[in-house]
Amino acid sequence: MAEPFANLDPVLYPTGHQVEAGGSAIAWSAIWGGTVAAIAISLVLLALGSGFGLASVSPWPGVGAKASTFTIGAGLWLIVMQWLSSAVGGYIAGRTRTKWSGLHTDEVFFRDTVHGLIAWSLATIIVAGVAVATTSLASIGAPPVNPSVTPALADEARKAAAMISIFGGLSMLVGAFVASAAAAIGGQLRDKHP
Length: 194
Fold this sequence. Notes:
single chain, mainly alpha, disordered N terminus
C-alpha cells in the first residue's frame, strides 16, 4: 500500500513539508479554458487581419500593396496573432489551475509552463484540423476555367507562399514560448491568493 504522502528532500524543503504523492500535476479544466480563449482570440484576430489584408490589395494591376509588402504584413500579423492569443490562453491556463501546496517553487514554475504549452498545443492542433478540413472542402469546387498564370506570376506566388510558411512557423514557435511564459505569470499570480 502506497503512503499518501512522500518525504521531501530536506535540502530543497528544510521545514519538512509533506506533499501528496497521488495528486495530478495537470489541471485539464484550466488547460481547456486557456485553449478555448486562445482559439476565440485567434479567430477574432484572423478576421481583423483578413479585413486589413483585403483592404490593402486590389485585383487591378499596379493598384494596392505589392505581393512582397502583403507577405511581410501577413507574416507580422501572424506573429502578433500568435503572441496575443497564446499569451491570453497561457495566462488563463496558469491562473485558473488549482493551487499546489507544499511544492518547491521550481516545480510549480515547471507545471505552470507545461500548462501553457499544453493549452497552446491543443489550440494549435484544433485550429490546424479546422484549417485542413476547410481547405479540403474548398478544393471540391470547380477549378478556374481559363487561368492566365505566367511563369513569373507562379514564381512570385511560390515565393509568397514560402515566406508565409516561414512566418507561420516562426509565429508558432514564438506563440509556444509566450503561452508558457504567460502561464508561469498567471500561476505565480494565482498563488498569491488563497
